[in-house]
Design brief:
The complex is a heterodimer of chains A (about 500) and B (about 100). With about 500 residues, chain A is an alpha+beta fold. Chain A is built from 16 helices and 17 strands. In chain B, about 40% of the residues lie in helices and about 10% in strands. The chains are: A alpha+beta (about 500), B mainly alpha (about 100).
């Protein structure tokens, strides 16, 4: 692997204007494959989810999965695309053992969805308008494992083993138009765009959307041009960048690499690049060549898909609220500041807080618990706050106990301990652990008398008018009652005992 | 449509992974030229009012419900494979990635 010379990102940005483009492949979570009734399941025994169609045996007839078509239309609608009234499938010919047919069934001239857009909001609130060129239906390829030679790498492999379970899994490929004007935000925008697409398909329920499983895969196109130049520079396509962080890093690296190449007076070669997570760099794949002549032609075994307005509208009516709009609505409803809301989103707690509020907590209380005590404990336990074991119902019940004066904030944390240790509901924990606030004035009075007797000098100061000294007595009472007293009530009783006006 | 020449045939043969001798390329160039001409006459017959079609029968929306059907066993799936190992198809290492 050769080491590439790169410029610093800042220097690259001073000299060149980046243009981006993305191809995102989304695997649909239909029960069966795109063109066959074999199961679409991840992780099963190799070659156990295939039939004659997936293996491309002679004489088989593919039949389109209606659910996959509907999922594709839903994705198109969520991306503000137009839905083609009439579209066809095409064969994309290439020789590689990941497809047993020597062609991939895809769409070419007439994708089912086209001309869409998506507004991408970056973390600081800056919005980029990304135009979608098309979203078309196709099928996934099989999985190759290269054996011998360097582990898992194709270079030096002796042979490859093929599992066709993934062969024929429905895919929707979403292609953007060139994205100009991102400037130094390009890497951030790349990450945010892929995150937004992933969020949309997950929200639609049409894909499991797990990048680590390859449900959402991104090919990132990058080119640079001098500022002020209209014509795009030569682009490279970095393949299969399969985490959000990798998308950001790959775009950043390619910008830096292009800039160094252009600075040295050499032309960029139009080629695919491979992203390496270990070195955080790309290496040359293969140059665009004759092999890219895919000789597309209409798939003779599949008839056209015709969408009626009625069918499309029926599907549109099932669209969930778009994630970005949902965020705006929830922030407004809850009255959180931009910063507060962003923290909630970044902590992945929007859903939990929404449920907690729906279950009866105030927006402030829901945020206080989830972003405070629960997040703190989750961090200590190194788990997601949502996975800690606290449910919205627990938060609501604790809040109710506080509001009723049964417990205070300090006791509430002990109640949480009990809930997390499986001692039952908050009320049950209060009962079992004897955590209720001591509200019996008689018991409090006894503790107060003791505290005053233990610190006679303080008692004298208070009698003499130094009311702020009451804190020391309150502290003594809280200690004796193990924090189970209402501090406000204790203060009142102390002053009353000493005959001093609060 | 221009007549197909020998270089184009050689290019197509390469794309299709078909090994062809010089003689075969010459002969195929002539034969394909005849076929291209025949297709040309079809294009001439169809006016602007005839939409492009890829199927002789005007069928649309032949779809199935998303229900799991016929599946092969691993043994059946591999039964026609020239070579197999560890329940998978074994193929020569191909350096060119798709």
């Amino acid at each position: 692997m050769s080491t590439e010379t790169i410029l610093s990102f800042e220097e690259a940005m001073e000299k060149y204007d980046p243009v981006l483009g993305f191809e995102v492949h989304v695997e649909l979570n239909t029960k069966t494959k795109m063109f066959s009734s074999a199961p679409n399941v991840f992780g099963d025994t190799p070659n156990s989810n295939v039939n004659e169609v997936c293996l491309g045996l002679p004489g088989v007839l593919p039949v389109v999965n209606k659910k996959a078509v509907e999922s594709s239309i839903l994705i198109g609608l969520a991306l503000n695309c137009k839905i083609a009234e009439h579209c066809t499938f095409a064969r994309k010919q290439y020789f590689y053992p990941d497809t047993p047919k020597n062609f991939q069934t895809s769409q070419y001239e007439d994708p089912i969805c086209y001309d869409g857009w998506l507004d991408i909001e970056l973390e600081d609130g800056t919005v980029f308008h990304v135009e979608i060129e098309r979203a078309h239906m196709e099928e996934d390829a099989g999985k190759l494992t290269h054996m011998g030679g360097a582990t898992g790498r194709i270079q030096g492999a002796d042979f490859s083993l093929v599992d066709y379970n993934r062969s024929g899994v429905p895919l929707v490929e979403i292609v953007t138009k060139p994205i100009e004007g991102a400037g130094s935000r390009a890497p951030e925008l790349a990450k945010a765009y892929v995150a937004a697409v992933r969020e949309i398909v997950k929200n639609l329920g049409v894909s499991d959307a797990k990048m680590e499983r390859g449900n959402v895969r991104c090919d990132a196109n990058v080119s640079l041009r001098p500022y002020g130049q209209e014509k795009f520079g030569t682009r490279t396509e970095t393949k299969n960048v399969n985490s959000l962080r990798a998308v950001e890093n790959a775009v950043k690296f390619e910008i830096q690499r292009h800039a160094a190449v252009l600075d040295s007076g050499v032309k960029i070669i139009q080629e695919t690049r491979h992203w390496h997570e270990d070195t955080k760099s790309t290496t040359s794949g293969r140059p665009k060549s004759d092999a890219d002549d895919y000789r597309y032609f209409p798939e003779p075994d599949l008839v056209p898909i015709v969408t009626t307005a009625e069918w499309v509208e029926e599907l549109r009516a099932t669209l969930p609220e778009p994630p970005a709009e949902r965020r705006k609505r929830l922030q407004a409803d809850w009255g959180y500041s931009d910063l507060e809301f962003r923290d909630v989103v970044n902590a992945g707690l929007m859903g939990e807080i929404e449920e907690t509020i729906a279950a009866g907590a105030s927006a402030a209380a829901a945020r206080k618990w989830w972003m405070g005590e629960i997040a703190r404990r989750a961090k200590l336990a190194d788990v997601d706050p949502a996975a800690l074991g606290v449910t919205p119902a627990v938060v609501v019940e604790i809040e109710k106990l506080i509001a009723a004066g049964s417990i205070n904030d300090k006791l509430a944390r002990k109640v949480l301990d009990g809930v997390l240790e499986g001692e039952g509901t908050p009320a049950e924990v209060v009962q079992k652990r004897g955590l209720a606030v001591v509200s019996d004035d008689g018991a409090l009075q006894k503790a107060i008398d003791e505290a005053l007797a233990a610190q006679p000098d303080v008692a004298d100061k208070i009698r003499g008018g130094k009311v702020q000294a009451v804190g020391a007595i309150v502290g003594g009472v809280m200690k004796v009652t193990r924090g189970q007293a209402d501090a406000g009530r204790v203060r009142e009783l102390i002053l009353k005992t000493l005959g001093v006006e609060g | 449509m221009a007549a197909i020449n020998r270089d184009e045939v050689a290019h197509l043969a390469q794309l299709a992974h078909i090994e062809m001798s010089d003689d075969e390329l010459d002969r195929m160039a002539t034969e394909l030229a005849v076929i291209v001409d025949s297709i040309k006459s079809v294009s001439e017959a169809a006016g602007d009012d005839v939409p492009a079609t890829s199927h002789p029968i005007p069928l649309t929306n032949v779809m199935r419900e998303d229900v799991v059907g016929h599946v092969l066993t691993v043994e059946e799936a591999l039964s026609g494979a020239p070579d197999a190992a560890s329940g998978r198809f074994k193929v020569p290492a191909i350096l060119e990635e798709s």
